[in-house]
Amino acid sequence: MPNPNSALADAARERQSQLTKPAGSLGRLEDLAIWLAARLPQPTPSRVKPAIAVFAADHGVAAEGVSAFPAEVTAQMVVNFINGGAAINVLANQHQATLVVVDVGVASDYPNPVESKTRLFRAPVAKGTANLRHQAAMSSEQCAAAFRTGYACAEEMIRNGKTLLIGGEMGIANTTSAAALICVLTGYKAEEIVGLGTGINTQQHQLKINVVNDAIQRAQAHGELAPLDWLREVGGLEIAALAGFYTAAADHGVPALLDGFITTAAALVAVKAKPEVADWLLASHVSQEAGHRFALQALGLTPLLDLGMRLGEASGAAVCLPLLQSALALHGEMATFAEAGVAAAKMV
Question: Where in the sequence is the domain holding 311, given as residue range(s)?
Answer without folding.
Answer: 50-323
